Structure formats: structure tokens, C-alpha cells
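Session log. Operator J.P. requested a structure for one protein chain; no other inputs attached. Running the standard single-chain path with C-alpha cell output.
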Amino acid sequence: MNVKKQINASAEVKPIPVVSKSSVVSDELTKLTDILHGVCPSDAVITFEFASGLHVHIDVRTLEDMTRLETLIPSLAGGAFYDIQRGLAARRSFFHRLSASVAR
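Structure written below.
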């Protein structure tokens, strides 16, 4: 009799519904990266970091590129990039880093 109850119980088990994966964050970061690639030199390295807010880091080789990007970046993506700062690129010799906060 226990065997019958087990068989009937297993017939009533319903599959776990599959939840579709949300890619909203990935899509937004891809859009921002594409916008930045459009104005950056081809050898620029673009990275995002989240530490109490979203930040973008752009590593470029020349100061001329950095100066040009400093003037262009605030007007991109509807003013999404702000608080732009200069620095040295970590672990990248001969690169300069431009960092900005991202309003999203």
C-alpha cells in the first residue's frame, strides 16, 4: 500500500517553472560601452566598477587622448558621465586613466 501512495504522489509533482533571464543591466552596460568605443582610441581599455556607485575607467596611451575625452565624455549618453578625474592606470605601464561616475 505504501508503494501505491508513492507512485500517486510522484505523478502529482509539477515541474519547476523556468524564469527567463533578465539582461537589463548587461544591455545598459553594453550600450554605454558602445557609446564610449565610438569616441575612444582603438587601443583604449574601458572597464566598469561598482563600489557604492557605478564608475567607468578609460585607460588611454596619450595625454592628448585624455584631454580630448575629458571634453567629450560629459556630453555623451545624455550627460550620464560626471565627476571626471585623471589618474594613472593600475597595472598598465604607459597608460593614463580617466575615471567618471555614471548616472544610471
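Operator note: The chain has three helices and four strands.
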